[in-house]
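Predict the 3D structure for this chain.
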Amino acid sequence: MTTTLPGDQRGFFARLIPPTPLSRSLATQSMLFSTGEGAFNTGSAVFLTQVVGMSAAQVGLALTLVGVAEFLFAYPAGRIVDRLGPKRMWAGSTVGRAGCFVALPFVDGFQQYLMVGVVFAIFGSIGGASHGSYVLDVLPPDERVETRAYMYSSLNLGFTLGAAIGGVALATGSLTVVQYTPWFAAVLMLANGFWVTKLPAAPHDLRVASGEQRVKPPGPGPTRNIGWMLTSFFTGTLWTNQVLLNVVIPLWLVEATDAPRVLLAFLFGTNTVLCIFLPAYTARGVRTLQDALRYTWWSTAFFVGSCLITMVTHSTVGLVTVFLVWLGHVTVTGAELAISGASWAFEAELMDPLRRGEYQGVGEVSRALGGQWAPWLYTGLALSWIGGSEGWLVIAGIIVVATLGIGPSVRMAERFRDTHFPTEPIGDPVDLTPESA
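Done. Predicted structure below.
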């Protein structure tokens, strides 16, 4: 079974555009979503402290509790999506998130924000499960990974556009502008929800409409698929490259090197450009589960390389430090791109097509367990042993152990799939023509 579009012979720039109408629609949706989120997130620190009136400690606690709520609701959200259909729940969750953005300018204090944040987390869990289920369900098997790559590029492009819009709001110096920035995000979320309603119904949606999905799917569910849970867990560990990218290397630059702080802007700029232009190319090599496992080793090689490069910058000076910190950031971006393609292939190949929402929920919980500890642990390991290499070597060792574990886990999940999953496509072929208004 292949998981990437074969034979795309278009030129470099032409291949930056998704090749099919459906993939272009899904990429557009990704950009609408991330532009709204990015516009709010850019000024969220100012919004939460200066508009809502929380202290920095309260902001940290509130965001942690919201994250816990999203974690706890991930599995029930997946069950709901399977029951009611991914497209309907995706559109509904988007409208719910828009409602939360509309409410934000009127929030005053920690408790009110926490109430809105928990509701936002619930809709976020439903949206994540339904989005992942819909995309896998509606796309032909040989288009899933490459289309996800185009969506990832569009997501990063949208976040960049949103950051620029949020930056303009901050540049005005007006708290009133910052206070009502969530309304801009709400408008884009509503447009996003409307766009989702125009996407074609996927086979799971058709089964729900016919009443077939009310019958419990045969066979065991994902909580009995130990291979899937372990694969998701180790994938979550490999995705801690984001912690290195966004937390550890920036803190290391400030605390342990002589590099100018302005370099941080160039680091994040490089990552953004690479993650906009390269996913469609880096994902083309993922055709089978074996390819995906190979990409996990590429990701690990980049991750370990980043650790080794970055740890020596404590002893370098001047332009050498600047170059090596930048190179360490580029290599960890390589780890991000490689694990992206592998992750999409694991989802495409190892989830029960009758239970994709439930599998998304279980996978989200397992991935969180595999990586939520990383900001605290990695920061402590890297910065507690300044001047030595022990902390960075331990971080690299954690990633190597996770990669060693993911191979047997995938094979276990593959055997479970071959034993319990349907062997033939389910439902009628999908009509790829968007629904009329």
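Residues 1-6, 426-437 have pLDDT under 50 and may be disordered.
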